[in-house]
Amino acid sequence: MTSTWSSPTGDGPATAVPAAQKLLERDRVVALTGLVGGATVDKVQTLTHERRIPLLGANARPEFAPVADKPRDLSYTWHTSYNSDEPGIAIAAHIKTQVGDGTVYAIGPDYQGGWDELRGFTDTFTTLGGKLANPDGKTVFTPFPATENFLPYLNKAAETRPAAVYTFYAGGPAVAFVKQYRQSALKDVPLYAAGFLTEGSVLDAQGTAATGIRNVLNYSPTLPHAANQQFVAAWSAAGYPGQPTTFAMASYDAAAVLDRALAAVDGPVTGETLNTAIGQVGRIDSPRGDWQFHPTEHRPVQRWYLREVKPDGPVLSNVLLQDLTTLPTT
Amino acid sequence: MHVDTLAVTVVDGVAYGLLLAIAAAGLTVAFGAGGVLNLAHGVLIAAGGYIAATTTAGTWASLVAATVLATVAGAAGGGALAAATAALRGRGHLDQALLTFGIALIGGNLLTTIFGSDVLRPRMPAALEGTVMVAGYRYPVDRLAVLAVAVLVAAVGYVVLHRSRAGRLIRATVDDRAMVAGIGVNPRTVDAAVLVTSGALAGLAGALATPILGVGPGTADTTLLLSLIIVVCGGLGSVPGAVTAAIGVGVVQTVGVVTVPTAAPYLLIAAMTVTLVARRPTVPNGAAS
């Protein structure tokens, strides 16, 4: 059996591409997984595709821009995660119901991830007849990663008297945004977000300032499925801190997909036979609930959940409120 | 923008500006008096921030301890830089810049190795976490506290620089090193003292900034860049110039970015360009020697 586990992908394409090359050429791996950054996935995808090696991403899925004017062939490319515009698409109808005729203020970070996340929401919300509170109907994008002081933006947003705010931030800026939101004139306006705003270690740093934030993601550690209860128990038993995140869950599923595909291969395991087997794994009984690969886009057709930050026993958690929708719909 | 929101944002800009002034004052004096171009200044600020973020535990005592510890660590770092750059005296700014740049790279990596790559924030006493109404506007208490400390430090700094013997010696060294040597004071002692003080102010500024900005892998570079912009716009070696420029930067970074959000990434550079083109070059005598 050939090892399928990769070296750390380091700081981006500059270190990750040589690492991937080494795995493909010297170690002759039959599959590659574990990539995080979108730019890295984009570069590595051309390498794995050339060699007919399945690439099973568990995190960012970039747009895969055409190479030399030809659309990318994604037959060897799979993801257990999601597209960046899906959280916003999934929650738009719910927010429209909540605000009724009220307006929603949209704000996010000025980079590809931020544009995708916010576009998913604003496009769907306005199609449903919703109105943005932003003066010109356009999302306010804050310079990234330079913005750490959100107070001026938040106080200006409060002038538009929105019924709710929708946002996406992740990592350090997510902590700053949430803490300063509770210090701003928007303090009492309901805050909705793509779930990354309060996912994982940032929630510890935000503390009670995050309480009450309603957000959307493809996973919640409080989902009642048996598969999730086992996953959460195994996570704690292994000594990992806090509760599992969507990132951990997607990597767990990537391993589960590879495990099942490897078991299904009859005869020698090559990139081709493994890729065919991945295409035939069918429904995955996952901590996030059952899902399966989209037949042509090779990413999960999965349920999205509405969550609210509140205490779950001794810790703050993204507690499941309800199912929202299943995406992609076509 | 409405007048009330504008007022709150201007206060925020001034608070931010005074914070930057504390950070940049040391840098400008070190250059003006000793001719030391200290590119490791940002690392001292980041170190102060990390110390504050990891020492605070939500109590007043830990907050005071964190502030003092960050200041002392900054002073120690300044002392080390003084020793390192003293050996390069007479070899010009470029050698010093290269040395301090190398120290900045190593120091920055050490900080990331020790404290990790997450953005850290201090744990403030509960009384500082909330908001108060000031003249009818909501404003975070922690920022008011930072503003108060920043005003205090600026006032003390002014008095020390203009009313004490030590301050007069520093200003004299900026103006004319030879004359200072002539009255029996070794200008190199003044240089070292300035670098230690400059480091202490950097550490303090780092600690004061963490409740608002957090501290992470980008902090050292960002604060060094802002400090250099302030030093250059304010006039090399001029403390009042640095304070004015710092408040200008603070206001541009708060009022400016929300007034014309589409131009936000370019506003600061544009403001700097206008300032430099409009102002006649002033280089203090001490810097050239």
Automatic annotation (TrEMBL), chain B:
Its subcellular locations are: Cell membrane
Per the database entry, which stretches of residues form a coiled coil?
Answer: none
**What are the UniProt keywords, alphabetically?**
Amino-acid transport, Cell membrane, Membrane, Transmembrane, Transmembrane helix, Transport
Does Electron transport count among this protein's keywords?
no
Topology versus the membrane: Multi-pass membrane protein
Main localisation, per the record?
membrane
Q: Indicate the transmembrane segments per the record.
A: 6-29, 36-53, 59-85, 97-115, 144-161, 192-213, 225-248, 255-278
Report if keyword Cell membrane is assigned.
Answer: yes
Q: Which family does it belong to?
A: Belongs to the binding-protein-dependent transport system permease family. LivHM subfamily.
> This chain belongs to which protein, by name?
Branched-chain amino acid ABC transporter permease
